[in-house]
Amino acid sequence: MRPAPPAISIIDVNSCYVSIELLFKPWLRNRACIVLSNNDSACVARNSHAKALGIRMGQPWHEIAHLVRSGQVHAFSSCYELYQDMSNRIMAVLATQAPRIEVYSIDEAWLDLSGLPESEYAAWGRDVRDTVLRQVGIPVGVGIGPTKTLAKLANWAAKTWAPKTGWVVDLSDPCRQARLLKLAPVEEVWGIGPRLTRRLADMGVKTAWELAKMDARLLRRIFGVTVERTARELAGERCFEVGESPGPKQMIAATRSFGRKITRYEDIAAAIATHTVRAAAKLRAQGSLCQCLQVFARTSAFAKQGQSYSGQRIVALPCPTDDSRTLVSAALEGLAHLYREGPRYAKAGIVLSQFVAGDRYTPDLFAPPPRPKSHDLMRAMDAINAKMGRATVRLAREDAGHGWQMRRELLSPRYTTVWEDLAPAG
């Protein structure tokens, strides 16, 4: 009999954007706080106190403004640069806690628990939570299970019954799995969205337990292979490994080492533009829009001569986009800030993050207008390149654009990425 595969854990930041804001404003931790979307148009994050007031995810600003003016709620504009930098710090800590990590989104990561005895899973989860809180100052929830889908459900349970669970739930025990599956609504299952929830409800499937017990072949015929695999994972069968997830990615990276060391800004900019265009094509292929990107360049870690340097820049976008031209301009803007003369650069690249679904995004009335016929142009470019070969149609390298500042009237300082925004001593 083959031994059971090691468990998988998912670490999830509690109310990510709000938790980061409150890290630098501890006097507000017991107050209702929210973070607003681009151009301060709607609520995109809220803590438990704000939820208790009935504030909904996506609720328009004009419906909330009176609560802020009366002092019942504290609101912040989205500071993507700060959020991404703090996420990087959390992920760096998590990378030391397991042999393998998959960064799933700005506030989530999967960890492979290979080599850890099953009896120590829960204690490991508590230790990881304490370590992140101690080293970064951000609270996280920990879900552990034999499959990704069960680990994700365990994480939901850890948050739902936080006082009892201590933000850590281990579903290694089959009896505990069964109890939670019978309690969990099917809409809380990873990958089951509102549309699938309605279709499953029409078939009498309302809990995770009922989905797990459905005939796999029937699910594949009606809903496709992803839902079938989700049900099999709920039943304890591993279908997705760490590094492999159903649905669209939550982060896209494009990096490459140079064939030779590069010192000129123009050469690095050409490489960054190329990487950005390729990442943008992947973004469009999965139907997502990007709200934030990181650009980096560094020298070789093994170089014995020359100046050592590693720099990165996080750029928040004024509105979600998949337009290669907009993303290239933002990437070059970031590169211009991090580039230094002198170092012999060995590698550069970009990371796109903080995605929203393109078919569910409602443009903001006050956001900068999109480029004319952007969707049609990008679709045509992708079609030609798919048929005739990569870079048959490509962008000329542009200078970084200006005027990117979006309307963020409640913006917090970028405490960790901008010298001028450092909090004063004392």
Provide a short characterization of the protein structure.
The chain has 15 helices and twelve strands. It has about 425 residues and is an alpha+beta fold.
For this structure, the CATH topology of the largest domain is Alpha-Beta Plaits
Topology, number of strands: 12
First-to-last CA distance:
62 Å
Spans with pLDDT under 50 lasting ≥5 residues? 398-405
Protein name: Translesion error-prone DNA polymerase V subunit UmuC
GO biological process, one term: error-prone translesion synthesis
Family: Belongs to the DNA polymerase type-Y family.
EC number: 2.7.7.7
Describe this structure in words.
- There is one protein chain.
- This protein has 426 residues and is of the alpha+beta class.
- The protein folds into three domains: 10-168, Reverse transcriptase/Diguanylate cyclase domain (Alpha-Beta Plaits, 2-Layer Sandwich); 173-246, 5' to 3' exonuclease, C-terminal subdomain (DNA polymerase, domain 1), CATH 1.10.150; 252-361 and 369-382 and 392-398, DNA polymerase, Y-family, little finger domain (Dna Ligase, domain 1, 2-Layer Sandwich), CATH 3.30.1490.100.
- It contains 15 helices and twelve strands.
- It has helices at residues 16-23, 48-52, 65-69, 80-94, 121-135, 148-160, 162-165, 174-183, 194-202, 208-212, 216-223, 225-234, 265-285, 324-338, 374-388; strands at 8-13, 32-36, 43-46, 73-77, 100-105, 108-112, 140-145, 168-170, 251-262, 288-299, 310-321, 345-357.
- A five-stranded mixed beta sheet has the order 5-6-1-7-8.
- Strand 5 and strand 6 form a beta hairpin.
- Helix 11 (216-223) runs antiparallel to helix 12.
- The N and C termini lie far apart (62 Å).
